[in-house]
Records
---
Amino acid sequence: MTLMNSFYLPILMAIGGGVLYHVGQKAIPPTVHPFVAVTVAYSVGILLCLVALYLDPGGRSFSASFKELNWSVVGVGLGAVVIEIGFLLAYRHGWNINAASVVCNISVALLLIPIGLVVFREHLTLRHAAGIGCCLVGLYLLSKR
C-alpha cells in the first residue's frame, strides 16, 4: 500500500494543513491590510481582492501593507491547499463526511492549544480544560474504524 492510499494520511494532511492555516492567520501582522494578505495567500481571486482593497479607502494602502508581509501569508495559502486535498483524499479513501471534519477540527483545535499558550500567550481556563477532555473522548470515539 502506498502512502497516498493510506486511510489515515489524508486526514493527517487535513489536520496539519488546518494547524498551519490557523497559525498563519493568527500571525499575519495587524498592520497588513486583510485584503492584501488574502491576495498574496491565494493566487485565485486576486482581482476580487484588489477591488475590495480599492473600495476600502480608510485602510492601509496596498503598497504599505505589501511591504510588511511575512512568512505567515504563505503559510495560510499552503495550509488552505493541504486542507482541500486532504479532505478530498479522505473522502475518496472512505472517511464519512460526518466524521472526517469533526476528527480534523478537534485535532486541529487540540494541536493549536499548546501553540496558543506558548507562541501567542493565550490562557486556558478550567472550563476550556473540561471541553478539551470532552474533545479527546469524542476524537477517540469518532476515529475508531
---
Amino acid sequence: MKSFFRQYAAVILSMIFWALSFVWFKIANKAYGPITIIFIRLCIAVLFLSAYLLITKGFVKVEQGDKKYFFFLAFFEPFTYFLGESFGLTYVSSTVGSVIISTIPVFVLLFAWIIYRERLKTINYVGAIISFIGVLIFISNPNGTISINTKGLLLLLLAVVSAVSYGMVLHKLAHKYNPVFIVNLQNAVGALLFLPLFLIFDLRHFLATGFVAESFSVIVLLALFASGGAFVLFAYSVKSLGISKANVFSNLIPVFTAFFAFLLLNEKPTFQNILGMIIVITGLFLSQRGNGTKAYEKEIELTGRSA
C-alpha cells in the first residue's frame, strides 16, 4: 500500500511542479528577463542533477558518435525550446502557455508517423484533431476571433516545433543512456549556449536590477523542483508504473497550471477557457490511447520536460 501511494504521489507531485513552472516564470519575469531566468535556472539545475547522478553513480561516458546528437538535443531543448516558451510567456498567460505546450505529445506522435512511418490507430488521429479544436476554442473569443497575442502564439509554437525536433533526435539516444543523465547533459550544453546571450543582452540589466528576493527565489524553485526534482520523481514513477501510465498524468498539467495561476496570479479562466481545456485534455488522452508507438515511448516521456 505504501509503495502504491509513493508511486502515484511521485507522479502527481512531478506534474504539480511542472505546472507551477509556468506560474513561477511569470513571477520571476517581473524583475528579470527571460534569458537571465533560463540561464540561472539551467546552471542551478545542472548542479542539482549532477549531485543526484554522483550519488546514484549515474554518470557514464558518451560515445564519440553520440556527441553530435547531444549537441542537437541541447540546441532544440533547452536552447530554442526555452527561447520560444519563455519569451512566449511574456506575451500570454501561464494557463494559455501550458495548454499550447501540452499539445507536444500529439505533434511527436504525428511526426513519428510522418518521418519514421510509425503506425497510429484511428482513435489517435481523432484525439489529435479534438486537441486542436480544443486549443482553438481556448484561445478564441465568443465571436470567433482569436484572443491570444500573435507574437506569443508564434513563440510558443517555436517551442512546440523545437520539442518535436528534439524528440526526433532523442530517438538516437533514449535507449542507450539514463534519462536523468540525458537531461543533465543537455542542460549543461544548453547553459553554455545561453551564456553568450546572457552576457550580451541581459548581464547589464541583471546587475542593475540586483537581487530581488521574490523573483530570484522562484528561479531557484524552477531549477530545483521543475528542472530537477520533478524529473527525478517522474523517472521514479516511470520505473514503477511504466511509461504509458505515468505519461497520461502529464495531461493534467494545464489543469494544475490554471488552478495555481488563479491562486497566485489571479488569472481567472472564462467558461470558454475551461471548455477548451477539457476538450484539449480529452483529445490528448485519446491521442495516446493504445497508440502502438512503443519505439517512441521514451522520446515522448522526455520531450518538453527538460524544462
